Amino acid sequence: MTAPLHDTSAETPAAVSVADVPAKAIEGRSPGRIAWMRLKRDKVALTGGIVVLLLILVAVFAPQIVSLLGHPPNEFHEDLIDPNLGTPTGSYGGMSSDFLLGVEPTNGRDVFSRIVYGARISLTVAFLAAIVSVVLGSLLGTLAGFLGGWVDGVISRVMDLLLAFPQLLFTIALVSVVPNSLWGFEGSGVRMGVLVLVIGFFGWPYIGRIVRGQTISLREREYVEAARSLGAGRLYILFKELLPNLVAPILVYSTLIIPTNILTEAALSFLGAGVKPPTASWGKMLSDAVPIYQFDPMYMVVPGVTIFITVLAFNLFGDGLRDALDPKGN
User: For the whole model, what pTM was predicted?
Assistant: First the structure.
């Protein structure tokens, strides 16, 4: 009898079935994690974010930093000033191991200490004004886009009116008539409150327009129509369906409006409508440096470079965050 062509008894052990192989779990990634992975790949934006974080830490821990590396911001050191010229006696504006960024002309105050304390003023005004703008702009922009009709018409016209209003002139005029003591605040505290309210109030139409446009686009999406068909009310749709999808553009614009607020505060301080002396302010330092920049250029360079680096860091981080939160990004 002929042997079978294929001997099953000599066959190698049967291959393990696919069903017996443990399946590798597929890990889900939240939108926040995806955005963080994209942001980590953007080295330029990450560098800007690190600089922003360092600036915030400098502003928060200004007294400790000054006590370690500088001198009190309002302490005079007239022995370091040339009595004939009124300029620092050392080179590069009096820079030394004791005065890292030199001293101010005429009075000899520590420039490093005043830069550090000036960061407090600039960042505090910028962040608080941004909060005012974001809250008003998000609320009114969402209502205008969601409700439409006469509500949209009224809010849109108010936006147009505020965008055409001369903010700088109004702030200068308002500061000149505000009393030195108001609501428990005095001096620079009153000025800072005025700056926050004015900058924030005149800044909300920009984010309001962005949020309005996004809301108009989102209110016709399928999930909103599905919520309506299931009987969801307006408040539910507004807070549960629309606002979560508006977080990304609001967050991005917040990071981009802060450097604008820093420049606005510096400009107002330069024009004399900022905090009152002797409170340190970057814009005021630039203003004081104008008459003497030919004799002591470093006194103008230091605050100017500080403003430039701060605004650049916020802009780079904001651009990177915008790309990271873009759902169409890679």
Answer: 0.83
Q: What is the pLDDT of residues 142-186, one digit of tens each?
A: 888 888 889 889 999 999 998 888 888 888 888 777 777 766 666
- The string over 100-137, giving b where at least 16 C-beta atoms fall within 10 Å of a residue's C-beta and e elsewhere, is ebbbbbbebbbbbbbbbbbbbbbbebbbbbbebbbebb
Query: For residues 215 and 142, is the Cβ–Cβ distance under 8 A?
Result: yes
DSSP state of 186: E
Beta bridge partners of 186: 181
Question: Who's near 215: CB < 8 A, 6+ residues apart?
Answer: 141, 142, 144, 145, 146, 242, 246
Please write the tens of the pLDDT for every residue from 98-115: 888 989 988 889 999 999
Contacts of 129 by beta carbon, 8 Å cutoff, 6+ apart: 195, 196, 199, 200, 203, 261, 264, 265
Residues with Cβ within 8 Å of residue 30, at least 6 apart in sequence: none
How many whole angstroms separate alpha carbon 3 and alpha carbon 20?
A: 34
190 burial type by CB count under 10 A (0-12 exposed, 13-18 middle, 19+ buried):
buried
